[in-house]
From TrEMBL:
UniProt keywords, alphabetically: Glycoprotein, Secreted, Signal
Domain DUF642: 29-186, 198-360
Xref: InterPro entries: DGR2-like_dom, Pectin_Meth_Modulator
Full protein name: DUF642 domain-containing protein
Length: 376
């Protein structure tokens, strides 16, 4: 009888330990083995790279044709480079990686990960945290290294969710597929209104996690691909991404973070605010360059109600900014504030770049002005 009681207690203790482990809330930064430096045993690799067994990679569950790639691995004439550490995974056709995350129900999170296209041209990735999902088209025109970092946000509907990154590709070569590395998470805190500013998160200080040593920024997809913006209070409209940048790797007008408009007129940074019809308001903001070698004349545009302004900026590619102001009269009880780049810009290495927007503020003047436009 005593032996049976001890056995029951042991079973209960084991179950409690497993439950406690599952209940650990994720912290900001790389997920457990998020850089894939803990690899499978050699006995679990076929031909040196193909992962055999769904749980061969510690902390991850895989399905389909998944390869464990070491930096410098050769595929034909292509040399595969890994940005974070020495290892990454490659997802073949219909392959995926999965990790269970213990989160806070109702909280918002942003996933950041790096990806590189390999032999296929039209690669895409499905990113999901049940029951939400999004499709991210793979682009290499944003970063000269071949790697880009992407952000994708979600609202936790459960206390424990499954993050899945899946390659839906249908290439002739099942091994053709994107490389994945540096998977991280950051809790997003809904910004509140600061005194003297009707815009939330006007300095863009709240946003996704920046991966260590990733000097190319983080691409934030348009809202048609992400129901919850990784930039709280802001929406990315149209079809192209914007680039979220930090002061550790770029020139930022104010604070430590800003947004680079790399999508021309195909991408717009938007926030909707409450206004009073007939009242006038003043939108102030900074326009500059991120010191990433993007050289030449730039034009950034701002819109609100029926007013607009085009702000010219001559970039030397070494950093700098100017302030601009747009006065407008509200025509409804909600007004969209919009920023976008008039033109596409490209660096000498062929990668896209553009003007930086930062330190945006909106104040009410409460008197009628004739939509006056002023540049400082």
């Amino acid at each position: 009888m005593r032996r049976a009681a001890v056995l029951v207690l042991l079973l209960v203790a084991c179950a409690a330990a497993r439950a406690a482990a599952a209940a650990v809330t994720v912290t900001d930064g790389l997920l457990p083995n998020g850089n894939f430096e803990e690899g499978p045993a050699k006995s679990e690799l076929v031909n040196g790279t193909v992962v055999r067994g769904a749980k061969a990679i510690p902390r991850w569950e895989t399905s389909g044709f998944v390869e464990y790639i070491e930096s410098g691995h050769k595929q034909g004439d292509m040399l595969l480079v890994v940005p974070q550490g020495a290892h990454a995974v490659r997802l073949g056709n219909e392959a995926s990686i999965r990790q269970q995350l213990a989160v806070t129900r109702g909280a918002y999170y942003a996933i950041t990960f790096s990806a590189a296209r390999t032999c296929a041209q039209g690669e895409r990735l499905n990113v999901s945290v049940s029951p939400e999902w999004g499709v991210l088209p793979m682009q290499t025109i944003y970063g000269s290294s071949g790697w880009d970092s992407y952000a994708w946000a979600f609202k936790a509907k459960l206390d424990e969710v499954a993050l899945v990154i899946h390659n839906p590709g249908v290439e002739e070569d099942p091994a053709c597929g994107p490389l994945i590395d540096g998977v991280a998470i950051r809790t997003l805190y809904p910004p509140t209104l600061a005194k003297g500013n009707m815009l939330k998160n006007g300095g863009f200080e709240e946003g996704p996690y920046f991966l260590p040593n990733a000097s190319w920024g983080v691409l934030v997809p348009p809202n048609i691909e992400d129901d919850h913006s990784p930039l709280p209070a802001w929406m990315i409209m149209s079809s192209k991404a914007v680039k979220y940048i930090d002061s550790a790797h770029f020139a930022v007008p104010q604070g430590t973070r800003a947004v680079e408009l790399v999508g021309g007129k195909e991408s717009a940074l938007v926030q909707e605010v409450r206004t009073v019809p007939g009242w006038t308001y003043r939108l102030s903001f900074s326009i500059g360059d991120s010191a990433d070698g993007c050289v030449g004349p730039m034009v950034a545009e701002a819109y609100a109600a029926r007013a607009s302004v085009k702000v010219p900026y001559e970039s030397k590619g070494t950093g700098g900014y100017k302030r601009a102001v747009l006065d407008f009269a509200a025509i409804s009880n909600r007004t969209r504030v919009v920023f976008q780049s008039t033109f596409y810009h490209m660096k000498s290495d062929g990668t896209l770049c553009g003007p930086v927007v930062d330190d945006a503020s909106l104040v009410g003047l409460r008197k009628k002005l004739a939509g006056r436009r002023l540049l400082l």
